[in-house]
Amino acid sequence: MGSRRTLVGGSGPVVGTVHGELVHACAQFGGEVVVRDRGESGARSSYDLVLRVAVAGDSGGIGPGHGGVGDLGGPADVGELGAEGFVIERADETTFVTAIGQRGLLYGLFHVIRLGENAFRGTRAREAHRPSTALRMLDHWDNVAVHPVMGQVERGYAGGSLFWENGRARQHSERVRAYARLLAACGINAVSVNNVNVHETEAHLLTDRIAEVAEIAETLRPYGIRTHLSVTFAAPIVLGGLTTADPLDETVCGWWAQAVREVYSVIPDFGGFVVKADSEGQPGPFTYGRSHADGANMLAAALAPHGGTVHWRAFVYDHHQDWRDRSTDRARAAYDHFAPLDGKFADNAVLQVKHGPMDFQVREPVSPVLGALPRTRVAVEVQATQEYTGQQRHACWLGPMWSEALRFRPDGEQHPSVGDLALGGLVAVANVGDDPFWTGHPLAQANLYTFGRLAWQPAADPHRVLDEWIALTFPSASERLAAGLRAVLHGSWRTYERYTAPLGVGFMVQPGHHYGPSVDGYEYSPWGTYHFADRDGIGVDRSAATGTGYTAQYARPWAELYESAASCPDELLLFFHHVPYGHVLSSGKTVVQHIYDTHFEGVEEAEEARRVWAGLADLVEPAWHARVAERYEEQVRGAREWRDQVNSYFLRKSGIPDARGRTIY
Amino acid sequence: MGSRRTLVGGSGPVVGTVHGELVHACAQFGGEVVVRDRGESGARSSYDLVLRVAVAGDSGGIGPGHGGVGDLGGPADVGELGAEGFVIERADETTFVTAIGQRGLLYGLFHVIRLGENAFRGTRAREAHRPSTALRMLDHWDNVAVHPVMGQVERGYAGGSLFWENGRARQHSERVRAYARLLAACGINAVSVNNVNVHETEAHLLTDRIAEVAEIAETLRPYGIRTHLSVTFAAPIVLGGLTTADPLDETVCGWWAQAVREVYSVIPDFGGFVVKADSEGQPGPFTYGRSHADGANMLAAALAPHGGTVHWRAFVYDHHQDWRDRSTDRARAAYDHFAPLDGKFADNAVLQVKHGPMDFQVREPVSPVLGALPRTRVAVEVQATQEYTGQQRHACWLGPMWSEALRFRPDGEQHPSVGDLALGGLVAVANVGDDPFWTGHPLAQANLYTFGRLAWQPAADPHRVLDEWIALTFPSASERLAAGLRAVLHGSWRTYERYTAPLGVGFMVQPGHHYGPSVDGYEYSPWGTYHFADRDGIGVDRSAATGTGYTAQYARPWAELYESAASCPDELLLFFHHVPYGHVLSSGKTVVQHIYDTHFEGVEEAEEARRVWAGLADLVEPAWHARVAERYEEQVRGAREWRDQVNSYFLRKSGIPDARGRTIY
Fold this sequence. Notes:
The structure is a homodimer. By secondary structure, chain A is an alpha/beta fold. The first copy, chain A, is about 35% helix and about 15% strand. In chain A, strand 14, helix 9 (about 290-305) and strand 15 form a beta-alpha-beta unit. The model of chain A is unreliable at about 60-65 and about 65-75 (pLDDT under 50). At the A-B interface, helix 20 of A face helix 20 of B.
């Protein structure tokens, strides 16, 4: 804020946070903050920045000369701004941020921070900003008790849990507070604090250990973040001592209603539940012959009187599949389970759908479920934690991938995008932990930020978002540093794709931990994740004509595009079709030569990124630089391992040599 | 013993055990036992059985009419009987067992028990029995503290540890006493009580926790069993606070000497140390630029004054191998490391060599190390715990495999066998735990028994040993039961071989836990365990002419036999040669058809064994029968999984269909 004078208008806990942020900034950089509750007056010319919460008809004497928000006009009408929107404009040497809700003011403040000096230059026509969806959420897969196999954070690559330590909620919440601030700056407003796989200890968070959740909620609340909880569907049995968890059983419904009442008695703004049911061993309504709508609606009914939401995950499939059976297709499962239930879910039930039909692979088509339930509130789930994309040891900026998914139009070009359809919100599996750099790989912070900003505005250009992240992370970044960061991040997702599983086929990872290559690692497993490579060809026939029929789950333009190997986009070819190694891609290369080429290129790109990063040593704080440099060593090693294993596998299998005669083992 | 009268002559703790065994038997079956120390006299006709410890020249008034052992004559001369041998004969309605040492008497007693009623029929010419080697040992890979990955017992498939529970030695030693008795009945006389991978907690057993080892030793001693300990080579650093563990450093030698003195002060008959050094991450002399002879001799020197032995494992290889490098051959490693050290080891240092060059696969050639160190005391190590042979969920009686190895003659037919050469003893990795059936799979008890008996007499016919086990385990076994047990066990090793990795190629197991198939599981790993299958062929070229040169580690007859794919035995072909799938075996089948056929046959054999076992339900104690039946379900399931994965893998890779048109996926 420099040495500027700022006026904060409004009151309440989140306004208090805005004020606190400004006081903190002034303590650091100079300047002055004045708080004025509604009704008081002040000379407007004496402030460089005015942030205020307004109500309809309240002009408050502050504004660029045309009254209060009552006449904001157009898309910035009061009603449309909502609780989180804000208006920004600059006139007469004062920058005005006006919001209807306290949270809007907080987001307005962070917007000013993003603008930096530009916020205080010349004049600025009024712009209204509001999030595309009311729910922008992080799901933490954190365990309270360290799991013997999955550890403290399931699929966590950033140290321990931010919330849980030594078997209970962290006692000193400074780190959690800092985290809440970080999330608010990204635009995130909801956090689920425990793993969707709810183990025994964690089940109790719902009841006798709710006070610990309340402690966390207390810390998150001033930053406009509501707290959610993952619960086990079997809670009435596990915690309540009932003999059933049947969602149509009155005693069960009563048990949930009472449990929810008690949750709200200690967390009045509790967000709701996240539920992974009938999935990978978790209990669910199928046990009782009930549908997933029955299950979700029971919880929705318990939450509704209090304003809570149930997030019901659509990640339901047979994880005891027989690899011999080529007719069963895991990619079909979510659609087959949930599309018939459209219109049957309660208003406060959100169906949370992974962006792809499988499981966060580096390349998947967009899930057909996202266009298949027009009468259901759907949330899109992405995975910020890099389970299948380098586990925060490899740099892999996922912005372009998420953006592609969010801009996908399930019904064709003239129809809404996934981002438009995600009325239930955008959710990311969190990638943070108690690591000093938050995300293990410092560059993975960009994924967290990008997710938050895309959740706010799914149509945003991810490259612009990345530039924001660069400017916020390195406030005095030279153009050389910014260019270097762009160079190593812009293409990093494609680079990771090049040296790992080719052409959308997915997996080929080491079983269990999912790090590093194992081409056949899941080929004969019960997990439904196969590539079917033999000496002649590779890929999964998911066509309607000769395959599993998965393509028919898409609306016409996409169903037609994917149905034929000739029209299917190269990058998804092996997801949809089994083709000979000699099949010629639209790129003009054969499949096997594409595999060789991309794997050599991917390694070269990783090596180049390492080189670029090394050249930035004089511009980045040494510890930060060293951590990234160390990760690049591992990335290059890992990329070479991927290259050599994948290339050797296909040379051994196909017998077709590399056209360029490079070394394949 | 029926209701017979028995005289026990001699004194001492192990004689006390003999007496106790007889008293126990009489309490159960009737009869009477008299103890008479040397010098006393008794009417010999009044006893059915006389067991006595004799000394040279002592006729003791007891014997079949030709005086004491002083004139036993021939191979049964006093000196040759040794501490563990005994003579048995029957005349004038009395059976005489005479030994020089107390342990000999104990083994004589168990011999009488094995003979059963036959011991008391007619007359019996004197037979002298003595073990082929003085050291018949079980190595327990038991951890004191449950290891986060490896559990309580590393590669243990029979529950928890018999020795360690809740982080310390078991308090109630009845089970350990029963175990000691079981081992003595098998002829085992040495036990190492902790894992060769010595973790932090277990390192302390050598010093501040030696009292717990002494407790175990106390329980084992009355059954003639000496206790050994696995120690870490880094003990002087880890426990002693020294800055080095250099075996040529005087302070280090002094530290070990003092540590050993303290061990013997509490365990006067302590057996010695087992050491896994410079192996799979364990510390060793290489750190200090010293040889393994230097390392072993330092410990041998510390143990020598007290009569202890160091067992130094030859399992040293590079476990960070690059799979791309086809010139490095793990099979060569033990020979390359140890053959040059022949003659350099102290007398009380034993080089403990795995029977095969790799790691306890279902089929390996005999290790060339076993014939390569004529001036070194070598022990042969086998693995009773079924790490790679079905993990005690599959029935796999290993007697024939061990017997083949022990009867192998490294220098050719006119020369000594491995059993003859194993002057340092026979060692098995234990397969027991606190499971109620001792070994998880009740039929795996046969492996324990067979090991003990082969250790006593390596040339013994394993099928005769199995019959002993059947008779001892089912004292009233009908011929139908005995025939059924033979039917399910005799061929079980070959059955397991048929449905797992073919033709000696090894591995193809799931990484880490090693249970179940994964054909490429270790193919691109750093462990040196590859099959090099491509679309044309499979196998490892270990020939001297074109391969790794491993065949040249054998003496001439074997080197020549293995060098050529034409003469190499079928069952080892892929261990020694890389051949096309169409290569015709001496069986007349192609390699790929052999793979298909054996995998179908193996499953059929497992199904047949399950059927045979089901037919024995009326003859076996229900819980025992049910446990085995349950294991057969899993074995059949597992065998089918092996069959289908292996067959599919090779069909996909070779493109050659099954000649008999069976289903391959």
